[in-house]
Amino acid sequence: MIANDIGASISEAIMNGHFDDLRASLSSDVIIAGAGPSGLAAAIVLASAGRSVTIVEKRLSPGGGIWGGGMTMSKIVVQESAVGLLSEIGVRYQKVEGGLYVADAIEFACMLCARALQAGARMLNLHVVEDVCLQDGRVTGAVVNKSILGEQFPVDPLVFRAKAIIDATGHEASVVQTLKERGLIQSPEGSQFGEGPMDVEAGEKFVVDEAGVIFPGLYVAGMSVCACFGGPRMGPIFGGMLLSGTKIGELLLSELR
Ligand SMILES: Cc1cc2nc3c(=O)[nH]c(=O)nc-3n(C[C@H](O)[C@H](O)[C@H](O)COP(=O)(O)OP(=O)(O)OC[C@H]3O[C@@H](n4cnc5c(N)ncnc54)[C@H](O)[C@@H]3O)c2cc1C
Questions:
Q1: What angle separates helix 80-88 from helix 239-256, to the nearest 10 degrees?
Q2: Measured from the CA of 175, which atom of ligand 1 is nearest?
Q3: Does ligand 1 lie within 6 Å of residue 241's CB atom?
Q4: pLDDT tens for each residue of the chain, 257 residues long
Q5: CATH fold of the domain at 30-38+48-256
Q6: Domain ranges of the chain
Q7: Is the CB of 236 under 6 A from ligand 1?
Q8: Helix extents (H) in 130-238
Q9: 170 CA from centroid of ligand 1 (Å)
């Protein structure tokens, strides 16, 4: 085989693999916007149960806010109620003071990504959910573009159908924002849109308790829960993100059934 032939074969393998994923993503049970801890935790639950899951991540590297740990120190902390989830995905941890557990942030991000993919979820990195499709008052799909491309050039996005979308985009709550900007979603009575000041314990509880449906077909998990319902921002602790994503995964499993 001459050198150019192998080069073309490599390119063909990459393109075929990518377009298989892209084609399969055209119709999913669930599209998850954002590959942070909450989105990946939801993906693991859904894909492990055999649901068709597409994760759309706007950055090159999935993992969201995990990589930076606390103030760039790549360790994560979880509380007792979430430590079982670390064991389930094979992340090693150590018990420290205060009923807390510490683990390596890089191991955590890698294991979450690996488990989600090995369970069968597809991941489209460098792709962004720009908007949602709405039919008869229900979200029926995501409008997806390549990151950067759509912002810089007049390139039309593609449409991916799904029975449900999870906004796991973190502080931005950027999918919910598309409906809010059009006045289609209002903050619940007496609450605000945007996070409140830090209250670690209340925030960890809020991000799990309030995770749920925000509009027919659209669900929120992780920090976007606080952004949407005015919950307190929480300390640098990741248990709530995992529990919030897992809760939405299980909720959707029962609803899709
Ligand atoms: C400014 C800032 C403040 C923080 N404050 C706190 C805090 O108070 N408490 C705390 O615990 N942690 C905080 N963190 C750390 C961290 O963000 C969270 O703890 C945790 O990572 C949130 O998990 P998540 O799953 O909700 O979302 P993230 O980890 O933020 O992941 C969201 C992912 O969605 C992607 N994304 C966003 N929009 C789109 C879109 N439209 N389409 C596709 N992908 C998209 C992002 O690229 C990202 O990878 C903060 C981080 C930042 C940057």
A1: 70
A2: 41
A3: yes
A4: 566 689 999 999 999 999 999 999 999 999 999 999 999 999 999 999 999 999 999 999 999 999 988 888 999 999 999 999 999 999 999 999 999 999 999 999 999 999 999 999 999 999 999 999 999 999 999 999 999 887 888 899 999 999 999 999 999 999 999 999 999 988 765 566 778 888 888 889 999 999 999 999 999 999 999 999 988 887 778 999 999 999 999 999 999 98
A5: FAD/NAD(P)-binding domain (3.50.50)
A6: 30-38+48-256
A7: yes
A8: 149-152, 174-180, 200-209, 223-229
A9: 4
